[in-house]
Design brief:
8 helices; six-stranded mixed β-sheet; alpha/beta; globular
Amino acid sequence: MTTLLLIRHGRTAANTAGILAGRSPGVELDEVGRGQAAAVAERLIRVPLTSVITSPLRRCRQTAQAILAVRDGQQATVENSLTECGYGDWTGKPLRELVKEKLWPTVQQQPSAVRFPNGESMTEMSARAVGAVRAWDAKQAAEHGDHAVWAAVSHGDVIKAILADALGLHLDQFQRLLVDPASISIIRYTATRPYLVTMNSTTADLGDLLKPPPAPKKRSRKGSADAPVGGGLGAAEAPH
């Protein structure tokens, strides 16, 4: 029953300019983005992280480096399957121009039917990202135990696809989710189902939310990952 922190990279100049950066080389955090990444590091200072993996793109690696700058001896691991969606010919173009494209309404309303011109389909993006997260989560559990907490630094659409999978949503619903720059979303994976602990968090202190759970009371193994009927104590009672 491991815990995944999904972290979107901090703000870039492309974000403020309304440019679809995609996989464009050299896109870096701006001054605000660097401050956001440092703030994420502070929010996580009390959270023991077994691993930090990151998209290979520079803005994500910078965010991961900021998180690890306050920790001794840890390094980020690059995971290519967490890279940005391959937007193909749309890469580097202003959003104000892209909204005029015939494909734009489909991107908004039926993303599962979208393949970007000379690029990737959104279903391919979702499959690779979800597959990578599931594989890494199994690795964390095997190496560090069921209470492992680990982080993945990635991009808005990629994180939204992973969240949609955790929520059991069809990909066509993922545009309903918001993932801000430098936000943290938390998923707990169990043998029964994933639990979404929080989404798009940009201010809350996560130390208390992610503190190690108390010693479990004796109960049947069968019910150890069951959801509390009636809601129970909320996140404090959700499987850890």
